[in-house]
């Protein structure tokens, strides 16, 4: 195994690299830390899956990357680099030009992502014309091409439709076309299939994967669905309580998870091989942001926790192709036990 | 089955704790303590009610008693304006009537008419709402159709028309008490729709709940179920509507009186005082209209603020 | 679509019939119409004859049909006070009311939307908070008090603007307009503000609330994620979605403005239909009351109808559901 196969950034300059990201929300009851020391990288044409329970900080990480953390939230530490250039400290107007142009985003619910009062074509064209110098006519042609590329039949006709005239799956295709409109380097897909019918989910995932590969786009795929991860991702980051518990190639993390939380999460996927009766569940619930325990955030629920877990916060360790934040792997004797 | 049903229903057999009871519990009080505006509005409202109630004892003069009026004292300015003289602290009108006394008594009348108007509209609205919601069918359709039609017209227009029709029917000669009764009726008929809609909605929800069905099973009559079990559930929203409508009722009375179709000049409410005082605006006797106007504005604003706060605190979704 | 329109028109006719019934009942049963027509010493036989000639002995339904038929042709009888046909009186005064209502509506819409958008976008700004506070006071104060306050400030104290009447008007056919003379325009200012102020605060609060709501929606977030300019998000996407409900409310408020002009016209002695109606109520002039009621009902119902139809034009989702329902 070479270093490039580990959870570290790939050898070539990554499209996106996030280091020690920290996001805080100022509330009446004090400052809550939603994201705490998150690091990862995504290379060209690579799909990084980000999984975790709701509230684990997946979406906040996505919002931080695209610069849409609204007050009272703020990026309190770390850095975000896009193509090597730092973007977390850009002034608002410069960041606006990054959004849509260099980073595209896809939201969970295609029903509510599109403005109901504007024709689909107009929404695509305004995105294109905001970020490029194309003429109105050229922008329209590009919009038609985009709709064709995401698999919308008869795009010349459908381009003049209103969002409500499209089905859920078709609408998500429109949303993807919108995210692709200015050929971004990175696409953040936040639960892109959760609101869709099961039959449509696979099509959307296949489409996303193909587009990422064809355009060399890096994709950050946020989901709580391990099935989607197994299907689409190259590497996967498992998040828990605003921290990355484990990150590594998808086959390794899904097939042989190291972090007890990841093990629990993988145990919770029903597969044909296993008996449905043995579907494992992790006892307890993820702590609220206001009550994250000291040491390892997972320690109250961890079946293998020991004294050090309630005191020291574990730092990410390279173990094989994984990177895992768990004390078990700091003391090899314990891991084997 | 018959024996197990009451046991199964037991936890829900009684109606849930009434809104009024929950009203007084700590959440509402805490929200009240947090809102300085609500506290100020409450204090002002209490002050206005106190002044109105105590008017006969604290006013320097009985403005309704012609024997106490001296034309010698007519058109005196407020005490701080040089020519003013005690005990006419904020001046007198062209009849020599003390403006302060007139304002106290006028406020008393405005509040009496407002409270009675709200009570009448509440009774009509709650009654019709209960009947519509419980009976359903054509009764419901008929009542709600009337409500819909009425809702398309502003309340002030309805009140004016009720007033006009009644005057036409009675020949236009009425004493002051009959005028008050008429205005109360006009306000009552103008503001019932909101109560009816709210109550009807709650009844429709509540009547299918287990405790009401249980009540029916043990043979309670419809009126008992409605008043004992369903009505307590709508106390909160009705109270909010009543508070906001009190301000509206006071405005409606004042407007009718201002338009000259409300209370007579011999028994002036705040609206009547403003109507008569308005004539002196150009001759420089501004205080005859300004103080009744200020009193009306303060009264309405205080009650409105209180109502707004109550609505937000009790139920943000309530319209 | 056609079926939808037809259904709405039928509903409107139903409302008008109901109001017509009330107007008729008022006309027929509130006092004896004969008393209003003859001298007090008219002999009984003569009264009976008049009753008969007026058709007051016919079955009630026949009388109502006759009343409705007359009303449809604009015949509302003669005013008791003025001894003139009610339709003539109303027609004379209608331009004054409509011009006032138009100015008040334009004022309420333009200022209300501007202030609403501003206070939504600068939610925590000092000016936005001030606007909110002022709007609360504006909603609370009775219209006539605001009118008196404006008169006191701008007519009595400053002497800038007239306090009553329409100023000089120009006759265009049967219409008289105050738009063409300086004194007519000056006379419009205070009454328009008085009449429109309540609606303005209402629209401002509505626009603010809707806009804040819209700014939280996914499609606005998505628009931001696409890197659209703030201007195009706020004044394109957000404002357009905000205005859909605002159109409905503003449209419905137009009816209220005409009804509330009763008060404003009284404060400013504005020679419109509202002032005529108030005088009619004071003097128990039933024909005018009945006719005004019907006229206002007609205006209200037409506005509701137009607003409903307009709504379907603005919101494509509704257009579709209407098409499906039809």
UniProtKB/TrEMBL annotation, chain A:
Superkingdom to which the source organism belongs: Bacteria
GO MF terms, alphabetically ordered: ATP binding
Coiled coil: none
Protein family (similarity comment): Belongs to the ABC transporter superfamily.
Keyword tags: ATP-binding, Cell membrane, Membrane, Nucleotide-binding, Transport
Name listed for the protein in its UniProt record: Oligopeptide transport ATP-binding protein OppD
All copies of domain ABC transporter, residue ranges: 18-266
Gene that encodes the chain: oppD_1
Cellular compartment(s): Cell inner membrane
SUPFAM superfamilies membership: P-loop containing nucleoside triphosphate hydrolases
Chief site of localization: membrane
Record-linked InterPro entries: AAA+_ATPase (IPR003593), ABC_Ni/Peptide_Import (IPR050388), ABC_transporter-like_ATP-bd (IPR003439), ABC_transporter-like_CS (IPR017871), Oligopep_ABC_C (IPR013563), P-loop_NTPase (IPR027417)
Topology relative to the membrane: Peripheral membrane protein
Automatic annotation (TrEMBL), chain B:
Tagged with keyword Transmembrane: yes
Keyword hit for Transport: yes
Protein name (Swiss-Prot/TrEMBL): Dipeptide transport system permease protein DppC
SUPFAM superfamilies in the cross-refs: MetI-like
Transmembrane annotation, as ranges: 37-58, 111-139, 151-170, 176-193, 237-259, 280-306
Domain ABC transmembrane type-1: from-to ranges: 107-307
Predominant location category: membrane
InterPro entries: BP-dependent_transpt_permease (IPR050366), MetI-like (IPR000515), MetI-like_sf (IPR035906), OppC_N (IPR025966)
Organism: Methylobacterium crusticola
UniProt topology in membrane: Multi-pass membrane protein
Subcellular location: Cell membrane
Highest taxon above the source species: Bacteria
Keywords: Cell membrane, Membrane, Transmembrane, Transmembrane helix, Transport
Family label: Belongs to the binding-protein-dependent transport system permease family.
Gene: dppC_1
Family annotation (Pfam families): BPD_transp_1, OppC_N
TrEMBL record, chain C:
PROSITE patterns listed in its UniProt record: ABC_TM1
Domain (ABC transmembrane type-1): residue spans on this chain: 94-311
Membrane topology term: Multi-pass membrane protein
Keywords, ordered alphabetically: Cell membrane, Membrane, Transmembrane, Transmembrane helix, Transport
Compartments where found: Cell membrane
Keyword Nucleus belongs to the record: no
Membrane spanning stretches: 12-30, 98-121, 133-160, 172-198, 243-268, 288-314
InterPro entries, per the entry: BPD_transp_1_N (IPR045621), MetI-like (IPR000515), MetI-like_sf (IPR035906)
One Pfam match: BPD_transp_1
Family as reported in the entry's similarity comment: Belongs to the binding-protein-dependent transport system permease family.
Protein name: Glutathione transport system permease protein GsiC
Annotated organism of origin: Methylobacterium crusticola
């Amino acid at each position: 195994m070479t270093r490039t196969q580990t959870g570290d950034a790939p050898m070539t300059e990554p499209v996106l690299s996030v280091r020690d990201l920290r996001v805080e929300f100022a509330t009446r009851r004090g400052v809550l830390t939603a994201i705490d020391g998150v690091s990862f990288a995504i290379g060209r044409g690579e799909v990084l899956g980000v999984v975790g329970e709701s509230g684990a900080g997946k979406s906040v990480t996505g919002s931080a990357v695209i610069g849409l953390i609204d007050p009272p939230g703020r990026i309190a530490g770390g850095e975000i680099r896009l193509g090597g250039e730092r973007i977390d400290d850009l002034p608002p107007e410069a960041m606006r030009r990054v959004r849509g142009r260099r980073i595209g985003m896809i939201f969970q619910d295609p029903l509510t992502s599109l403005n109901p009062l504007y024709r689909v074509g107009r929404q695509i064209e305004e995105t294109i014309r905001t970020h490029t110098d194309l003429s109105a006519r050229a922008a329209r042609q590009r919009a038609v091409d985009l709709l064709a590329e995401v698999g919308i039949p008869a795009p010349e006709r459908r381009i003049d439709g209103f969002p409500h005239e499209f089905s859920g799956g078709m609408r998500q295709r429109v949303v993807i076309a919108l995210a692709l409109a200015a050929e971004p380097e990175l696409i953040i897909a936040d639960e892109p299939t959760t609101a869709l019918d099961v039959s449509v989910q696979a099509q959307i995932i296949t489409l996303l994967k193909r587009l990422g590969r064809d355009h060399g786009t890096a994709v950050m795929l946020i989901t709580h669905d391990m099935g989607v991860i197994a299907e689409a991702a190259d590497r996967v980051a498992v998040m828990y309580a605003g921290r990355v518990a484990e990150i590594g190639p998808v086959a390794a993390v899904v097939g042989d998870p190291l972090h007890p939380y990841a093990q629990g999460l993988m145990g919770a996927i029903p597969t044909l091989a296993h008996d449905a009766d043995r579907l494992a569940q992790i006892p307890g619930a993820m702590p609220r942001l206001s009550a994250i325990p000291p040491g390892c955030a997972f320690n109250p629920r961890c079946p293998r926790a020991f004294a050090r877990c309630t005191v020291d916060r574990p730092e990410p360790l390279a173990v094989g192709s994984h990177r895992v934040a768990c004390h078990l792997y700091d003391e090899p004797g314990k891991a084997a036990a | 089955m018959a024996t197990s049903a009451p046991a199964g229903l037991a936890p829900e057999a009684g109606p849930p704790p009434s809104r009024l009871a929950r009203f007084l519990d700590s959440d509402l009080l805490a929200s009240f303590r947090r809102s300085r505006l609500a506290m100020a509005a409450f204090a002002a409202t209490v002050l206005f009610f106190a002044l109105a109630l105590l008017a006969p004892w604290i006013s320097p003069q009985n403005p309704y008693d012609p024997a106490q009026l001296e034309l010698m004292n007519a058109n005196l300015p407020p005490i701080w304006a040089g020519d003013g003289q005690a005990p006419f602290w904020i001046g007198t009108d062209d009849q020599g009537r003390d403006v302060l006394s007139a304002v106290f008594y006028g406020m008393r009348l405005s509040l009496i008419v407002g409270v009675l108007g709200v009570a009448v509209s509440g009774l009509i609205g709650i009654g019709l709402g209960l009947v519509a919601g419980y009976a359903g069918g054509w009764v419901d359709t008929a009542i709600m159709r009337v409500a819909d039609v009425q809702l398309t017209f502003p309340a002030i227009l309805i009140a004016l028309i009720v007033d006009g029709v009644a005057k036409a029917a009675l020949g236009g000669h009425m004493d002051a008490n009959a005028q008050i009764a008429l205005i109360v009726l006009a306000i009552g008929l103008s503001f019932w729709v909101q109560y009816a809609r709210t109550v009807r909605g709650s009844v429709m929800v509540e009547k299918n709940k287990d405790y009401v069905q249980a009540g029916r099973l043990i043979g309670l009559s419809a009126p008992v179920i409605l008043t004992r079990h369903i009505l307590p559930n709508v106390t909160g929203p009705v109270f909010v509507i009543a508070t906001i409508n009190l301000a509206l009722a006071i405005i409606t009375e004042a407007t009718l009186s201002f338009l000259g179709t409300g209370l007579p000049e011999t028994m002036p409410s705040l609206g009547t005082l403003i109507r008569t005082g308005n004539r002196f605006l150009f001759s420089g006797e501004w205080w005859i209209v300004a103080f009744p106007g200020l009193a009306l504005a303060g009264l309405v604003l205080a009650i409105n603020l209180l109502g707004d706060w109550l609505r937000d605190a009790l139920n943000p979704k309530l319209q | 679509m056609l079926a939808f329109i037809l259904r709405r028109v039928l509903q409107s006719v139903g409302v008008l019939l109901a109001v017509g019934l009330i107007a008729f009942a008022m006309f027929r049963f509130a006092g004896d119409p004969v008393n209003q027509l003859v001298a007090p010493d008219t002999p009984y036989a003569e009264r009976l004859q008049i009753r008969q000639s007026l058709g007051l002995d016919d079955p009630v339904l026949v009388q109502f049909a006759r009343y409705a038929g007359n009303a449809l042709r604009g015949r509302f009888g003669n005013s008791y006070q003025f001894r003139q046909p009610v339709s003539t009186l109303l027609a004379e005064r209608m331009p004054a009311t409509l011009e006032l209502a138009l100015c008040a509506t334009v004022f309420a819409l333009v200022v209300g939307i501007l202030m609403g958008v501003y206070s939504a976008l600068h939610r925590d700004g000092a000016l936005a908070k001030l606007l909110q506070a002022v709007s609360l006071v504006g909603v609370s104060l009775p219209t006539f008090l605001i009118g008196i306050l404006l008169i006191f400030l701008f007519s009595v104290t400053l002497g800038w603007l007239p306090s009553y009447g329409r100023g000089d008007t120009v006759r265009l056919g049967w219409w008289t307009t105050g738009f063409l003379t300086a004194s007519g325009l000056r006379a419009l200012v205070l009454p328009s503000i008085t009449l429109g102020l309540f609606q303005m605060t209402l629209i401002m609060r509505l626009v603010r609330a809707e806009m804040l709501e819209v700014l939280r929606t996914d499609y606005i977030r998505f628009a931001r994620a696409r890197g659209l300019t703030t201007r195009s998000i706020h004044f394109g996407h957000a404002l357009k979605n905000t205005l859909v409900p605002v159109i409905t409310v503003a449209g419905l408020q137009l009816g209220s403005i005409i009804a509330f002009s009763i008060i404003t016209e009284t404060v400013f002695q504005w020679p419109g239909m509202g002032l005529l109606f108030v005088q009619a109520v004071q003097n128990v002039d039933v024909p005018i009351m009945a006719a005004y009621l019907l006229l206002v009902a007609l205006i209200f119902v037409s506005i509701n109808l137009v607003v409903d139809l307009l709504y379907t034009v603005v919101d494509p989702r509704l257009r579709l559901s209407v098409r499906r329902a039809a």
